[in-house]
Predict the structure.
Amino acid sequence: MINPKHLRAFHSVAHTGGVGKSAEELGRAQSAVSRCIRELETGLGAPLFERRPHGMRLTAFGRLLRERVDKAFAEMDEARQRLDRLASGPCNPRAPVFHLGLSAQRLLAFAETMEERHMGVAAERLGISQPAVSQAVREIELGLGLPLLTRTATGIAPNAAGLALAIHMRRALSELRKAERELAALQGGIGGHVTVGTLSLARNLLLPRAIIELLAARPAITVSTVEGAFEHLAALLHAGELDFLVGGLRPSGHTIGLAVETILEDTLAIIVRADHPLTRRASLDFPDLAAARWVLPPPATSTRTTMDSSLRKRGLDPPLPVVETADVAITGALLMESDLVTANSPHLFQREIGAGALCILPLALPVASRGVGILRRTDSQPSVAAELLMARLRAAAS
């Protein structure tokens, strides 16, 4: 495990190449700097430096950790700059939090408190006492010389400085988690963990296929998926909680700060059960759908937006659905058991269409394609495991 309190010493030795120079730079005894390095190496179970007569040289493990620590410290430097702009008074630029100079538990206690807006809830999530959470928050405030929240009868109300610090702190801690996984992978062959945010267009076929192929090639890798609305998943991605998102792409105004890669062009189709009355018509056109009863995703989704736009281009009013759901399983069950109609991606119902339970009506929606792709933070460096899964997604899409 990485103890954040030792990272400042590691970072200095990694960049100066010697304990003596780092001790002078940090204003600490050489023995204290050496002890930090030893404890880091013991916690990680890996040598970070080669000890040489004329200095310290990074090992492969050390180089990997330095890259992640550089990114973590860059996040905290950005936090310092933002606090200078947001805070009501001067901020202590040497506060320990800016070099993660507290225990991981205290850093997490602060971040959880800012997110949950309640110290009791944060304590319960971390399995520690509420006074310990309160002390962690207070220690960070005292170090900065700034108030970061207001205590209320129902919890706490973070101010702008507190929320900004929490975001950058979570990103920094995310870099350390990636470092731990990558170091473990380097020790035992390529492994690691990937956490993917998934939107509906990738869940049924694209992502499962990519995961299966990845695990067959790299059985030491593990994968977690997080489902939700785009806004929720984008917030988790910005906070460093996700490695990347995969699914239907959004307009550029929704993806500021994110790198967007289109891997597939998807097309909407009108889908019904195989023996639906509309399938028995000799000819079919869009006015024949006037009396149809629809099951559609909610208005804010890319599917619904594309559907409505396509119909307006034909001079038709978008339908008012009798059922709104983003759940593909619910939509499929409703289609097979009723005369409901949907507009959606055929690949989401590939198994049902292939089995003859559902079919596509011969009606082409104009300009009904939308991109499916990968989104990640522009300033992030994906882990090895995340890079491998993204490569499998590209292959599955092609």
User: Anything to note?
Assistant: The CA atoms of residues 312 and 318 lie 7 Å apart. The first helix runs from residue 7 to 16.
